[in-house]
Design a protein that fits this description.
Blueprint: E1 2-6, H1 8-11, E2 14-16, E3 23-26, H2 40-43, E4 54-57, E5 61-71, E6 76-78, E7 82-84, H3 91-94, E8 104-108, E9 111-114, E10 121-130, H4 139-146, H5 151-155, E11 164-167, H6 172-181, E12 188-191, E13 195-204, H7 214-224, E14 233-237, H8 251-260, E15 264-266, H9 273-281, E16 283-289, E17 305-311, H10 318-325, E18 329-337, E19 343-344, H11 347-357
C-alpha cells in the first residue's frame, strides 16, 4: 500500500505553542577542533545532525489526527492516506529508521511503501496522547525526545487526564522517570506489537522539532534537578556494560590512566536514575565513549566540560549541540576500531583534552 509522505504542519490543523518559540543559537566550536589530527571525522561525518556552528529548532505544536494509525515498530504514524514525517524529526533523520522490513519497505518519490497485512490490529476508542517516539528504548532518545513531549500538558490543559500512549514494555529507567513527570492517576496505554488505530490521536511534536533548544533542556532540568551543582567531580563513564557496541579494547589502560588523574569510574546501568542525576549535578569533567550515558551532562552545571570518544566511522554530534546550549565546553577524540569493532582510545589525545580543562 502507498501512503503520501507529508508534514503534519502541512496537512493537519495544529495548535502552535505560545511558551516555546522557535529558536536558534551559535555554537562555540569544540575546544580541540584545530588540534585534533582526525577532526574531519567529526566535522565531516554524514551522520545527522550535520556539523555546523548554527543550530536551530522550530516551534513545537500539537495536532489531532482522526483515526490515527500507529505502527509500533519505530512508532510510525499514519492516517488513511498520509504518512507523517513528524513521527520523527525530519526527512533526513527518517532515513535512519526506514525501511523496516517487511512492514515499511521504502520511501519513493514522496510515497511510503508499506505492507501491514501480517500485523495484529488493535483499536482504541476515544482520545489519547502519543508520547512514544522512535528509539523509545534508548536512554538518549527517551530523555531528550520522548519525555519532553509531555510539554503538551503544561500548555494545553484540555488534554490533561487523557491516556498517554507508550511503547510497551517499559524498562526501569522509563518507569522511574515517568513517576517524576506523570500524575499518579494518568492512564497509560502500552502499545502491543502491531498496528493500533486511535479514534482521536493527539500528536504533540517534540519540544524542539528538528534539533535541540534551551527550552527543551531547561524543561528537563527543572523537573529532575533538586539543587545547584558544585562542579567538582571528574566522571569517567565506562561502557563495560555496553550491549550495542563501542566497547573499548584498551579499557583497563584507559581506566587506570583516568583514575590516576582523579576521575571516578561509573557504570550507569548499575545506578538508578535519581542517583545518576545526583552524580552529574556536581560534574566538572565528563569523559567517555559516545553513547547514552553522556546524555546526563544536561544535569551538570554551566561551565562543565565534556570529552567524548568517537569511532572514526560514526560520529554523533548531539552532545556537541547540547553542551553549547548549557554553556559547557566540548571536545572529541577520534578512535580506530580493532578487528572485532572495539575502540582503541589514544591516551595521548585524551591527555591533551583533559589538560585543557582540568585546571580551569
Amino acid at each position: 500500500m502507498l501512503y503520501q509522505v507529508t508534514h503534519l504542519r502541512n496537512q493537519q490543523q495544529v495548535k502552535s505553542s505560545s511558551n516555546f518559540p522557535a529558536s536558534s543559537f551559535i555554537c562555540n566550536p569544540p575546544l580541540n577542533v584545530e588540534d585534533e589530527p582526525n577532526a574531519v571525522a567529526f566535522t565531516g561525518s554524514p551522520v545527522p545532525h550535520q556539523y555546523a556552528l548554527k543550530h536551530s529548532a522550530t516551534e513545537p505544536f500539537v495536532a489531532e489526527i482522526k483515526n490515527g494509525l500507529i505502527v509500533t515498530e519505530q512508532v510510525l504514524v499514519f492516517d488513511e492516506e498520509h504518512f507523517y514525517l513528524d513521527s520523527y524529526h525530519n526527512t533526513e533523520l527518517m532515513k535512519t529508521i526506514v525501511p523496516i522490513p517487511p512492514v515499511v519497505e521504502s520511501l519513493q518519490n514522496g510515497k511510503l511503501v508499506t505492507d501491514f497485512s501480517g500485523l495484529a490490529y488493535y483499536e482504541y476508542e476515544g482520545p489519547a496522547v502519543l508520547i512514544a517516539s522512535p528509539h523509545t528504548g534508548n536512554y538518549h532518545h527517551w530523555i531528550l525526545e520522548t519525555l519532553p513531549r509531555l510539554w503538551v500538558f503544561d500548555e494545553f490543559p484540555e488534554y490533561r487526564g487523557l491516556p498517554v500512549i507508550l511503547k510497551g514494555s517499559l524498562v526501569l529507567f522509563q518507569h522511574k522517570t515517568l513517576e517524576r513527570l506523570l500524575k499518579p492517576c494518568t492512564p497509560v496505554l502500552l502499545l502491543d506489537v502491531g498496528v493500533t488505530v486511535v479514534d482521536r490521536l493527539i500528536f504533540p511534536s517534540f519540544l524542539a522539532p528538528g534539533g535541540h533548544s534551551y527550552q527543551q533542556l531547561e524543561w528537563l532540568r527543572s523537573r529532575f534537578l533538586l539543587r545547584v551543582g558544585k562542579r567538582e567531580r571528574l566522571i569517567y563513564v565506562c561502557r563495560q556494560d555496553a550491549v550495542n557496541g563501542r566497547r573499548v579494547s584498551n579499557g583497563y589502560e584507559v581506566e587506570q590512566f583516568l583514575v590516576g588523574l582523579g576521575f571516578e569510574k561509573v557504570v550507569l546501568s548499575e545506578m538508578n536514575h535519581a542517583d545518576q542525576v545526583e552524580l552529574f549535578t556536581d560534574a566538572k569533567v565528563i569523559i567517555g565513549v559516545s553513547g547514552s550515558g553522556i546524555t546526563n551532562h544536561i544535569f551538570s552545571p554551566e561551565g562543565s566540560h565534556v570529552i567524548e570518544f568517537h569511532p572514526r566511522d560514526y560520529t554523533n554530534r548531539a552532545h556537541f549541540f547540547t553542551t553549547n546550549l548549557l554553556h559547557q565546553t566540548y571536545q572529541f577524540v577520534i578512535c580506530d576500531r580493532d578487528s572485532v569493532g572495539n575502540l582503541k582510545v589514544p591516551l595521548d589525545r585524551v591527555l591533551c583534552c583533559v589538560e585543557r580543562v582540568l585546571y580551569d
